[in-house]
Amino acid sequence: MTTMIKPAPVRKSVTVEVPLDKAFDVFTTGFGRWWPASHSIGKSALTTAVIEPKAGGRWYEIGEDGSQCDWGEVLAWDPPSRLTLAWRIGAGWRYDPALLTEVEIRFVALGENATRVELEHRLLENMGETAEAMREAFESEGGWSGLLERYAAEAKRHAA
pLDDT tens across 70-82, in order? Predict the structure, then answer.
């Protein structure tokens, strides 16, 4: 009998010096401004990335040639406090409609002009044998930590 250990979710947070609604807006509407072009799975170089502002909306990238490449969909859209995305990108960095992991982002007001942004990437066990390696990638500097730093820098540009 083989027992698979369920990988822990990846949890990261960052505090931005902007009001709650602005923090949510920069993360979602401004997603394409802070998501790095290096983090692309499309056949064409990434021009922008999009989160459609509704439950059931798409989460995808647009390439230089105009092509679109899905990453998943919006599972929950609760502005300005919560967003949950289906991450359907497997270990080969390819879209897999049969795969479901979730990225939940919570926005917590710390005052009028400060917001803590909490990210949890969970259900990594759904990645099977590659779950632990993918968890390490998400935990790395090129993963959610570095991405949240880029987001925080974008939020800072919108402060005031």
Answer: 999 999 999 999 9
